[in-house]
Predict the structure.
Amino acid sequence: MSFLRSATRSVRARGRRGITAALLVLCLPAQALAMHPPAPPQTPLREACEKEVGYRPEPGQKGKDAIWAATPDEFVTRMLRMAGTSADDYVIDLGAGDGNFAIAAARQFGARSLGIEYNAELVKLAQCMVRGSGAEGRARVVEGDVFKADFSRADVLTIFLLPHLNQCLRHRILEMRPGVRVASYLFSMGDWEPDDMTAMGLDVAFLWVVPARVGGRWAFREPGSGGAAFTVDITQIYQKIGGEVVDGGTRHPLLGASLRGDLLRFSFRDAKGVHQNFTGRVAGREIAGDLRAADGESAEVVATLQGGPRPSPWAEMAPRCGKFYGK
Ligand SMILES: C[S@@+](CC[C@H](N)C(=O)[O-])C[C@H]1O[C@@H](n2cnc3c(N)ncnc32)[C@H](O)[C@@H]1O
């Protein structure tokens, strides 16, 4: 229930309607979606493409692991915006349907994009929509199974599948580069709390930022200096971190520790009782950043991981997901 608590907390700022929407959606069983699947507007381009490929998908029609229903256009834009999509990004939509996310990412944000869709007829329709919308060259939709396809090169992932499918993709998402943004329409990602969410009416979408792996003991020093100035012991579950600093034989808790992608921040009181703020970037077994004291003094510091990273059971494949991976 901690996810629900946090979702509620983070929508509180967005007002009562937001809270109601989030609670309703979080409590809505997936069957409700199957009963009232969102349908896209019937545009001249869609009609022309349906004619060209001789296929008209029905909202709610069965798919390999999830039905076809379309994220409303307004929410497609909202989700891509929430993910901070730009022309530098490669956006991949998992279960691409008629290509709406791939087209919007290319047309509205100038991104390169790829949609992965299992249903061959939907793929043909999506490819026609990509051509007709002028997104060709930047957007592509291909036939594939999201559980077999390689989506590791994405900067932004968009998903409208089902809660258990999100959970079964989660360990692969957590293997991606820190900083990758993942936006899911309606559904959560198990106990991985979102970093952000957007709600309007009954619609809701969540955003996660893939966290760097920081669990372990880090020795911090000024570049070029010999021994460690202090060590930091970090515990991690997804993007939630905590721990303590060992400085001159004394231990101090990390205060206000946060991790967003590879951006790590924490504060602590050093051995002399001075409040220190650290901000830095994590790159594998190294961290580099600045240590700024409350009295205004600042220093460049680097850290190296001591020994191995801590085991991270939260990043492993969720129970009952083996069937999607032939296990
Ligand atoms: C709910 S629709 C979302 C369509 C589109 N992404 C959107 O948000 O409007 C889910 C899509 O995933 C497809 N799908 C289901 N299982 C899949 C799988 N294992 N691999 C690829 N696509 C899949 C379905 O055919 C359907 O088009």
Notes: The pocket of S-adenosylmethionine is lined by residues 63-71, 93, 95-97, 100-101, 116-119, 122, 145-147, 160-161, 185 (CB under 6 Å). The helical segments are 2-12, 16-27, 30-35, 44-53, 73-82, 100-109, 120-132, 163-174. The longest strand covers residues 275-283.
